[in-house]
């Protein structure tokens, strides 16, 4: 076979992928009567290049897709990208600023033209990166959240929800980003712990009567207070309920209300009510009919309702308010306080809760069947502990703010009459308004990105049209995603699928964690610890990247990554390549394995393969790709490469032609099986080797997945062979313990355990070849040796090696005496230092601990040296 001496991924990966794609190897076909396997790719945002999290995500989708394709299931892995309105618009604005441009200077149409250019550039770049990773997607079905079909689905859903009264427009409190200048949904707010203060402010009573003291973390918002609240059962303030207090600085009367929302034990038990700038205060205001007074602009500065503080930023206003309260003697005290502060998930600015006229979705009616679907097991989380995250979100869900003050995205299909202001929801503007006007303006806002993403599993298959793809591939089978977007995306897809398709969009949600650095830190630009997957591919190959990610992953957990893992995976690829070269050099033609006479080593490796097939298949079905990869690694490297190939060489290079053919048949059978098991994880190298296997045709991804063959499973013989191998391992370790050079020949005496007599006698050639035994004598228990030996034991029996065969006892004794003397001096030195009060009192703690550690280590070394010296003096077994 024509096979390069060294594996070079750069030489094969791009050309192999091009061959796969151009041949339509990834294209999913509808096959009547066969159940398909479907995954929709979580669409990457068109905001830049892929990172290690994307690489992990891609690997975890490609593994089951390739696995099911090999099992003969019609397999669709549908790719696509997300317009990511707020994130992409933010990036485009940053880029335009470098050119001295603004959104406003370009106008909406000019800006959207730039956005579509961005999409063309970055979406293409991202899909190229996915190809570099080896993603086996059906590119003929590639989608984009703002393509014509997906946009049609978005409009249809909006119209249906509005018709059912589940979409409404109203003035409610929302989370507002003053930098992005848009509303956010609750899911788009990230909370971080910040050190701050708790200001205790006195609100006087009218006419000098009794007032109250409130504790607040945001004194600047007091300018918008329209009441104060106390707990109904707080006897300290019973007499004040129903009355008024005076709002400092603004000098207006505000009511005192009683509401169970108030925590009597926090602060003073009195809470200032700023309904326009706090979601909890807003709910209290609705219950008690308090006024809603907004005092902060969209850009985060104070508005005219803030009186003399108008125009200040919120932070400047806070400083001025605290200063004025101090001057008036109304600031009673300031306490240090740590609390959770909401920030924008994109720009990380502190968000401002404020009332705003927005579009909302009523969530309760949609959430209830989606909750039940998970409770009933129609949708299963792997690991199942993440169902709690889902339930916590869905059971406490609030109405979803879906409008965004952006230009890039799906524009809201609502039309305003220019004369009377009447709102009409529709795919297009109406011909005429009820007032007779024919001029309309479309709503300026766009929909939340997650509104379109929620429809991804069925909009990508053609919904609302009744397409053949939709009928065949929906519902999908598995969603692979991170735990950080369970409520952003997973929950919304579940309720959307049930609402519009009548069934959940998938039955399994496989959750993975973050890819962290080798110290467990999140990869970030600020820490400089990020690893670019494309750089890893360039240096080690895509297979090495994929396999190194797979080896470290377990469902739901974060994984630590380092370049050393990529190097280890590259070494594994080289091991497979070199083993394949050996096989091809010695087996040029296909040989049928069945019916051939097998020896015990053949039966052992074939039984191991049967076990590997069962375990790898089970692990992939369970979504535990880390265990699957580890099993393939262990079987391929240790059992096949390190053991079987070495065990087989004596027959392969012998004179018995029939035995040679048996070995060749086994080598080819097992190698082909390993390549198939490994293919979902390392598609490139397995394809490159597979096409060189004698008797194979087509791509390996279309070859049948291995099945456990009962006719090739020999558990008893395999267990016996395992016992022989264990003895060889012990002999190797024993030789290493006494520093015997590899290749130095020694005699070997073996006393077999019951049941191992024959197998050990049959294995003398293995002991001679693999543990450098010059003569192998297998006894029956009556063997007596007349010289010093080193011995060991395992399940297969006992072994004895003459000490004189391994070392020159006199020279070794002299060497040990010198080493013992050196170590004793080190022990005396360290003991003296640690017993010296002058050292322990003055030296730094790490220095003292280092000496203690060194002393403990040298004591262990001394024990081992003394044992070895005793053996040489005759305390070893004397036959």
Q: Could you explain how this protein is built, in words?
A:
- This protein is α/β, with parallel strands linked by helices and 879 residues long.
- The strands form 10 sheets. The protein has a 4-stranded antiparallel β-sheet with strand order 6-5-14-16. A 4-stranded mixed β-sheet has the order 10-11-9-12, covered by helices on one side.
- The longest helix has 31 residues, at 845-875.
Short description:
The protein is α/β, with parallel strands linked by helices and 879 residues long. Helices cover 45% and strands 17% of the residues.
Name some characteristics of this structure.
alpha/beta; 4-stranded antiparallel sheet
Break the fold down into its secondary structure elements and pairings.
Layout lengths: L8 H14 L14 E4 L11 H19 L4 E4 L1 E2 L3 H14 L4 H30 L10 E2 L3 H16 L3 E11 L4 E3 L4 E15 L8 E5 L10 E4 L13 E4 L4 E7 L11 E4 L5 H10 L25 H14 L3 E14 L7 E10 L2 H12 L4 E3 L4 H9 L4 E2 L1 E2 L9 E4 L5 E3 L14 E3 L3 E2 L1 H5 L2 H4 L8 H6 L4 E5 L3 H16 L6 E5 L2 E2 L16 H8 L1 H10 L7 E2 L2 H24 L13 H22 L3 H28 L4 H22 L4 H8 L24 H23 L8 E7 L4 H6 L1 H7 L2 E6 L10 E6 L2 E6 H4 L2 H27 L1 H6 L2 H31 L4
Parallel strand pairs: 1-2, 3-4, 9-11, 15-23, 22-23, 24-25, 26-27
Antiparallel strand pairs: 5-6, 5-14, 7-8, 7-13, 9-12, 10-11, 14-16, 17-21, 18-19, 18-20, 26-29, 28-29
